Amino acid sequence: MNEIFRIMEEDARKTPQQIATMTGIPLSKVKEAIKQAERNRTILKYKAMVNWDKLGEGQVWALIEVRLVPQRDVGFDAIAERIYRFPEARSVYLMSGTYDLAVLIAGKTMQEIASFVAQKLAPLEGVQGTVTHFLLKRYKEDGEVLEGEERPKRVPIMP
After folding, report:
1. pTM score, two decimals?
2. Which phi and psi angles does 67 have, rounded to 5°?
3. What pLDDT digit, counting tens, does each position of 11-64 carry?
4. Residue-wise over 124-139: b if at least 16 C-beta within 10 A, else e?
């Protein structure tokens, strides 16, 4: 059944019929697996990936490293939840190393991101420090090349 989800993760536009044909799994089983995965949040979201730069609405991206003071009984989870509830936070990861969290955010300007860090993130109780890295250019995201021509993902089989 994981084959179904690998196909959907690669291209969520594939229909259950196409997936059934590709995998050899009966259509009814494919449909039921998808419905069950939506109900139990195995499938979290269907989304289109848009290159906003091509539409003239580029965004400024930043990766913010956050050092935290862990809280008794909950560790980093409570503060991570407060951070991921901010609409600016696109992704939040617990990580090893000098900093505890990596927070990926997007904004319209560098000033908007700086304001988020200064007014919302840094003042949170438990935040000891932050380091902001502005992303200068995105080459590939979520497995997709953003500029230039995408090369075929399948390698031809030679006889």
Report:
1. 0.76
2. -100, 130
3. 889 999 999 999 999 999 999 999 999 999 999 988 888 877 788 888 999 999
4. eebbeebebeeeeeee
